[in-house]
User: Which sequence fits this backbone?
């Protein structure tokens, strides 16, 4: 954990300082939570179930405010929803009455400066959406409704929706959790490609330790509830990573190390 | 394939079967016409007096639709308010439940005191009976919005109004259209009730006067027309519902009586 003296360095995307979150009803979700994410980094957060990972995501995106402590995103203190964030969840949460195209236009109807230009530049925005859909292999599906897509395709679309307004920070809460192993590994590569091209900062919450090591520059391990960061592993595997990477001894060692940490944490809880 | 055809024909077969049984029972037991007329007799009266019946039916249709239209507007506004604001929900919920448990027939005399005999009490009764399911369904549609969906929008900096406009209202449309079917039927009930008690026009009045004069076949003819109008309106809104909300799973009708 870094000292407070470097807290305001401009290349920090997320700075969480001694944060505590108590939900109404008294559940203490996280306590003494400290976390730093550098601009452009890909961070994975793992931890036992119910330890406060989703709460951490809500805190960093400003959807809930901490009961104690301070959070900064891109150098700004968080006082409400942070607009430079894109989010995707385990459940794709696409709107069933909108086509894939219209679902992806939704953020542009809300976030400035796109919102003000929406009517005038709708054609351009539609072209942007189609281009983004093509990068995740969904070209030709723009006019389909979400319920006409498979689970994996819906999740791709949900990822695109989180990215369409060019957020600086991408927050993913178990986005691939409900998918089969093959689709999941395919989407790892899709996500890695987009991230390498665009260079936004990513925080990924996952239950899958292989996923964490495959994608992240750093893997943070959380303690049982109330959650705090108990380990910070740097993943020094070269990029772009591919399926061969996941069979390297070093990869497997990292996964085992993380597994042991979490197992110990669960036993202690 | 044959079973499906049979399924589609079932409503008609049932009605025809019932009419035949009814006709036979009247003949066999020799029931006098002023107690229970035979369906064939009702049909004859329906044709003979069609001019008069249609005059009253038009009036009933008119009051029903006016009351229903006001109910839709008011019910929607009330539903949006109750479904989107916790405070409004807490404040209005007990009032609404209390209001809905008052039998609306008992309100008609009061309406007569305020507005006199005629069209206005009928319109208001139709309104009072039919706004409730609309309000309840719209509120339910808004209140059952998945928190994650709201979070996706809130994270983008969407205002409460944005969330209602972009997600809440479209999402509650199937609930809304499902409620229209129920509401239009209730609106008919309301206007006919009020017409029987306090009007000089409309099917309710016709039925009331016919029964006072023991013209029971005419009573039945009037009821048949109301039922036909009710079915036609229900079918119309069922079609609109299917057309507009193809994406939704079947929404639940809220059964609420007057
Ligand atoms: N809205 C809420 N109100 C009250 N308590 C909550 C709320 N959301 C979460 N909690 C509680 O806070 C704790 C942490 O929840 P959180 O969802 O952050 O865990 P998680 O690590 O994401 O779990 P999982 O791995 O199962 O997704 C849990 O004990 C949960 O019951
Ligand atoms: Mg979670």
Assistant:
């Amino acid at each position: 954990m870094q000292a407070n003296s470097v807290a305001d360095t401009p290349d920090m995307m997320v700075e969480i300082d001694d944060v505590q979150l108590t939900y109404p009803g008294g559940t203490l979700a996280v306590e003494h939570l400290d976390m730093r994410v550098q601009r452009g980094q890909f961070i994975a957060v793992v931890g036992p179930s119910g330890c406060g990972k989703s709460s951490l995501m809500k805190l960093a995106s400003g959807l809930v405010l901490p009961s104690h402590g301070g959070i900064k995103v891109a150098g700004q203190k968080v006082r409400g929803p942070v607009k430079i964030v894109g989010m995707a969840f385990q459940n794709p949460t696409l709107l069933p009455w909108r086509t894939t195209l219209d679902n992806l236009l939704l953020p542009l109807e809300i976030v400035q400066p796109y919102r003000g230009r929406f009517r005038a530049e709708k054609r351009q925005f539609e072209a942007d959406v189609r281009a983004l859909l093509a990068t995740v292999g969904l070209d030709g599906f723009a006019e389909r409704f979400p319920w006409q897509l498979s689970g994996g395709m819906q999740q791709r679309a949900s990822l695109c929706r989180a990215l369409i307004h060019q957020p600086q920070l991408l927050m993913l809460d178990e986005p691939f959790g409900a998918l089969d192993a093959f689709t999941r590994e395919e989407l790892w590569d899709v996500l890695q490609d987009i991230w390498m091209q665009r260079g936004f900062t990513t925080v990924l919450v996952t239950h899958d330790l292989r996923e964490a090591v495959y994608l992240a520059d750093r893997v943070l391990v959380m303690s049982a509830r109330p959650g705090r960061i108990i380990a910070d592993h740097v993943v020094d595997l070269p990029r772009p990573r591919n399926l061969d990477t996941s069979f390297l001894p070093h990869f497997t060692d990292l996964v085992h190390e993380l597994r042991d940490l979490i197992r110990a944490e669960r036993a202690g809880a | 394939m044959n079973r499906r055809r049979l399924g589609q024909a079932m409503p008609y077969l049932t009605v025809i079967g019932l009419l035949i049984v009814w006709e036979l029972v009247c003949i066999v037991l020799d029931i006098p016409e002023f107690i229970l007329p035979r369906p064939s007799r009702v049909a004859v009266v329906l044709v003979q007096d069609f001019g008069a019946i249609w005059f009253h039916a038009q009036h009933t249709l008119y009051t029903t639709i006016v009351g229903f239209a006001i109910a839709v507007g008011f019910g929607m506004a009330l539903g949006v308010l109750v479904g989107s604001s916790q405070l409004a929900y807490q404040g209005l919920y007990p009032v609404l439940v209390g209001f809905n448990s008052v039998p609306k027939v008992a309100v008609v005399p009061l309406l007569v005191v305020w507005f006199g005999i005629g069209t206005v009490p009928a319109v208001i009764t139709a309104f009072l009976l039919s706004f409730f399911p609309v309000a309840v369904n719209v509120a339910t549609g808004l209140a059952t919005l998945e928190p994650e969906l709201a979070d996706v929008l809130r994270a983008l900096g969407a205002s409460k109004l944005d969330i209602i406009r972009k997600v809440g209202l479209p999402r509650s449309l199937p609930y809304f259209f499902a409620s229209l079917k129920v509401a239009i039927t209730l609106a008919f009930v309301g206007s006919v009730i009020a017409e029987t008690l306090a009007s000089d026009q409309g099917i309710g009045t016709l039925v009331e006067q016919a029964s006072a004069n023991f013209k029971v076949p005419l009573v039945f003819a009037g009821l048949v027309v109301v039922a036909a109008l009710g079915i036609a309106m229900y079918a119309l809104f069922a079609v609109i519902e299917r057309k507009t909300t193809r994406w939704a799973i079947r929404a639940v009708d809220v059964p609420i009586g007057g």
In short: Chain A has two domains: 12-84+167-268, 96-160.
